[in-house]
Amino acid sequence: MVARLTESYGAAADAERAGPMAAYMKDVSPFLGIPTPLRRELSRAVIKDTPKPSEADCAALALRCWELAEREYRYFAVEYLRRHVSRCSSGILPVVRHLIVTDSWWDTVDLLAAHTVGPLVAADQALPAVMDEWIEDGNLWVARTALLHQLRYKSATDTDRLFAYCRRQAGHPDFFIRKAIGWCLREYAKTDPEAVRSFIAAERGTLSPLSVREASKHIGGA
Question: 138 in a domain, yes or no?
Fold first, then answer.
């Protein structure tokens, strides 16, 4: 599959697009210059008629894509994991953590958090304790993943954990953590706006203005 992927993506590379795409992502990785609609079309052709993967297949493909320089290969891996996360167990979490901390930026981390880590945690009662460790991690992208892993849980959200994580990182100086706090609160506010209003009101003195502004976007001031 990786051989087909590199042949397909390589043939579609566009050097004129690659530079601006890399610059937009702060040059965290080089790009091939493939626009998203075309990339997804090519990806569908690459995986067409391939057998359902095992967890080991998912891990191996993701790690191989992360060894390739251009960012589009990481996007393929992230989308492949999202597609097949139900075939994976907690055993793949160390691999996903490696992906999160390697050439980290929001474009891969956020999708891994919501669409791979989130479903893995929901499926395994032992994994919330791992998120309790991740929220304390010195790597901001690991901590951001812990904040965002419940992003799609809606009424299944563990609100005690959500609010505890936001309190734990409320004083973090980095934009990406402060933004993530606001984002996860804003998303949960779609399910329980009053709980989020109450939390913001209680924690306004510790939350950053950015976090409060993001969290309050659709529920008004707290």
Answer: yes
